[in-house]
Amino acid sequence: KMVSSLSISLMIGSSILNDKSKALGSILAQATKTRELEQLYQAQGDELQQIKIRTNSTQKQVEVLKREGEVRQVAFSASLMASGGGDIGPFNAYTSLIFRNVVSNIGNAYNPNTGFFTAPVRGVYHFNYHIYGHGHSSHGSGAVLVKNGEYIFMAYEHQTTLGANSANTVTMLLELGDVVYLLQRVNTRIFDDQLHYTTFSGLLLFPL
Questions:
Q1: Among 11, 12, 32, 197, whose CB has the most other CB atoms within 10 angstroms?
Q2: Where exactly are the structural domains of the chain?
Q3: pLDDT tens digits, residue range 119-176?
Q4: Distance between CA 134 and CA 131 in Å, rounded?
Q5: Sign of the dihedral through C-alpha 179, 181, 185, 186
Q6: Is the pLDDT of residue 53 over 80?
Q7: CA neighbours within 13 Å on the CB side: how many for 116?
């Protein structure tokens, strides 16, 4: 009987041990899964942080490109008189022409108060201008395009009767801050009215 009781006790102990072993194994398995989940969450968090960093970088690049795109859009066109009409000149010295009737001024590089175009970016620009005057025995009609005080191209015509039309055009490299404007030639008369005969235009072809 004692042997039988001992056998039963051993069997019960073995069963309990097996149950505890299984429970411990289950706990260890759950702990392993928990660690794996924590590692997965950590990896996902790191990836999310990297995505945020890349997104911020992309947004900054887009903003830079947008600003550059705005600078690259430069063009203006204006005529001499905003109202009324009549002759300007003659003068005994070269005199600034201020084109006050602005048709377009994309980029605001042209100043209708001074007549100056100031390059907002280094690049290649194209300018053209048309000068009109009535025929006169003593006075022609003309103007010179100037860059930073340097005479570039002249447009001049002298007719004793009818109208005197002249024009010129130039494509040139400008540095940031360079100034382009027109000067009325000495001893000339220039006419404009609401039909806008006398005009000045320019645009940025491409930046450099």
A1: 197
A2: 1-72, 74-207
A3: 999 999 999 999 999 878 888 899 999 999 999 999 988 888 888 899 999 999 999 9
A4: 11
A5: negative
A6: no
A7: 11
Residue 171's region, left for phi above 0, alpha for psi from -120 to 50, else beta, is beta
Three-state secondary-structure class, residue 47 = helix
74-207 adopts what CATH topology?
A: Jelly Rolls (2.60.120)
DSSP state of 140: B
Sequence-separated (6 or more) residues with CB below 8 Å from residue 155? 129, 130, 131, 142, 143, 144, 145, 166, 167, 168
The answer to whether residue 17 scores a pLDDT higher than 80 is no
CA dist 173 and 111 (Å) reads: 20
Q: Cα(80)–Cα(153) distance, rounded to whole angstroms?
A: 19
Give the integer Cα–Cα distance in Å for 182 and 147: 9
pLDDT value of residue 62? 47
Q: Say how many C-beta atoms besides its own lie within 10 A of residue 185's C-beta.
A: 24
Strands 95-96, 141-147: pairing kind: unpaired
Q: Which residue from 201, 206, 208, 207 is spatially nearest to 75, judged by alpha carbons?
A: 201
